[in-house]
Design a protein that fits this description.
There is one protein chain. With 253 residues, this protein is α/β, with parallel strands linked by helices. It has a single domain, classed as Rossmann fold. It is 31% helix and 21% strand. The protein has 9 helices and 9 strands. Strands 1-2-9-8-3-4-6-5-7 form a 9-stranded mixed beta sheet, with helices on both faces. The longest helix has 18 residues. Pfam families: N6_N4_Mtase.
């Protein structure tokens, strides 16, 4: 009898013009990619936080991240886990990411302030070299905190596999990116703005294969296709796999 995870691994990729979309667990799909074949991992992984305390952390993603009055969207996998389970999952994913990345490949991984240290530890423990952090400033429309500071920033960990590749036209990105969060017509509970992803994509060397192990609704893929990169997206939640696939198909038209 084949387990559900193995069935997902066997699901054939949806192929487009310069892109592929997989439905399955990230570590399983990544294990089928060739060593050193990837030029960039740009992803918004599940943070496994969203609140303080185990009960709140393991609540549904719609409970943790859905704002009042927002449309109900499908739950997404990997976030409502105990800390130990989240760490075990992410460790497998980052080990596979390191293997498939070529020398000089870059990593850009989103996290919030709670997930910053554990995420950075996961990334560097497998061999990636930490190169800094990019701040996403969401602006004053972000959630306020009573008697505290507005939750208007998220962080993008920047790392590489070894020495960065030389580029004929060097890239100089801003360390703080100002971009209002997406409010209307969201396709994913924690969907990132296309404008933000389009800016981050520029960090990948020309001609790089970009992989997003947690592609959600496919924003990274849309930005990659628009910029002329090849792209592989992986998504465990079937509903979001379908949304991302449709989005990638539309992006190549």
């Amino acid at each position: 009898m084949i387990c559900e995870a193995c069935k997902r691994k066997q699901t054939a990729a949806v192929n487009g013009n310069g892109w592929k979309a997989y439905h399955g667990k990230s570590e399983h799909v990544l294990s089928d990619l060739a060593d050193g074949s990837v030029g960039a991992v740009i992803t918004d992984p599940p943070y496994g936080t969203g609140a303080n305390g185990v009960t709140a952390r393991t609540a549904s993603t719609s409970t943790k991240y859905r704002t009042t009055g927002a449309a109900e969207l499908p739950e997404f996998a990997g976030d409502s886990l105990l800390p130990e389970a989240w760490s075990a999952m992410m460790s497998k994913v980052w080990r596979e990411c390191y293997r498939v990345c070529g020398e000089g490949a870059v990593v850009l991984a989103f996290c919030d302030w709670r997930a910053f240290h554990p995420m950075l530890t996961q990334i560097t423990s497998v061999g990636f070299k930490s190169r800094g952090v990019v701040v996403w400033n969401k602006g004053r429309g972000a959630r306020p905190t009573k008697n505290g500071f507005r939750a208007q920033s998220e962080f993008i960990i920047y790392a590489s596999k070894g020495k960065l590749r030389e580029r004929p036209n060097p890239f100089y990105g801003d360390g703080v990116i100002n971009c209002t969060t997406k409010v209307n017509n969201k396709r994913h509970t924690t969907e990132k703005p296309l404008q933000l992803m389009a800016e981050l994509i520029k960090c990948a060397a020309p001609g790089a294969l970009i992989v997003d192990p947690f592609q959600g609704s496919g924003t990274t893929g849309e930005a990659a296709i628009a910029a002329g990169y090849e792209f592989i997206g992986i998504e465990e939640t079937e509903a979001y796999h379908k949304i991302a696939t449709e989005r990638l198909r539309n992006a190549e038209r």
